[in-house]
Amino acid sequence: MGEKTMAKTVLITGAASEIGQEILSVFLNRNYKIIATEISSEMASLKEMIKHEEGRVKTFVLDLENDEDITAFTKSVLANYPIHDLVNVAGINILRNFFEWTADDLRKVMNINWVGTFLLSKAVAENMILHSIKGSITTISSQHAVAANKERVPYCVSKAGLVQLTKVLGLELAPYKIRANCVSPTFVLTEKNKHLLYSNQFLDQELTKIPLGSYAEPKDVANAVEFLSSDSSSMITGHNLIVDGGWTIQ
Ligand SMILES: NC(=O)c1ccc[n+]([C@@H]2O[C@H](COP(=O)([O-])OP(=O)(O)OC[C@H]3O[C@@H](n4cnc5c(N)ncnc54)[C@H](O)[C@@H]3O)[C@@H](O)[C@H]2O)c1
What we know:
Radius of gyration: 17 Å
CATH architecture: 3-Layer(aba) Sandwich
Bound molecules: nicotinamide-adenine-dinucleotide
Number of helices: 9
CATH superfamily: NAD(P)-binding Rossmann-like Domain
Number of strands: 7
Distance between the termini: 39 Å
């Protein structure tokens, strides 16, 4: 009840993705002000999505592959807004056979998924400490942080790295009462990937590994983020909340 009346600010990366949009809605419902970031190619669609909420949602270009972009964003945006919650949604996946990976492609996935998330989390944690905010950092990892899957070496490694990063953040930020947690979904059904998830190969080889018998929905991820960023989870930090319908319990 009290939470609804406080004007807190959340920073959400990858905000134009379906998962990002669902998370954004959760925070709008909680009466937050929102800083939503995207790469420049997604900015038009992000602005279209939030056009009725322009007073409450500010949009900024932020390319997590680019260290200088993160530094510039820190100086120009973070310097002006106390941040109460960070949700790291942005991430990429490239499917490739083990023998076909190049150093450049490995670095691209690791830089966006892991280094970029690290650098932004650090900048936001500094912001929270500066403003004495007992905030939360919630990072979207993946079931593939825990269970390996073929053709996804850097994705699996980067997502496992996010889980471990989160545990270390849990320790290092605890003195400031800042909590850090991960949400690790199974395959999430989106418009973008439904052709793949409903292909015969996925139905046979992937859906059958989910005991609850369905893919996750963006809302399932957003519900977990809502819990981990709210006072309901005030004793939970360094945790990896797996939202996988049971995939990883086998
Ligand atoms: N869809 C799934 O099945 C699934 C499952 C588990 C975890 N996830 C994770 O959920 C998150 C959202 O994924 P999604 O499936 O909605 O995919 P998506 O491709 O729609 O979203 C990825 C987001 O990251 C952004 N992004 C890409 N490159 C970036 C960069 N260099 N800098 C900043 N942002 C960048 C994209 O613009 C997009 O908004 C990702 O972290 C993904 O790994 C997705």
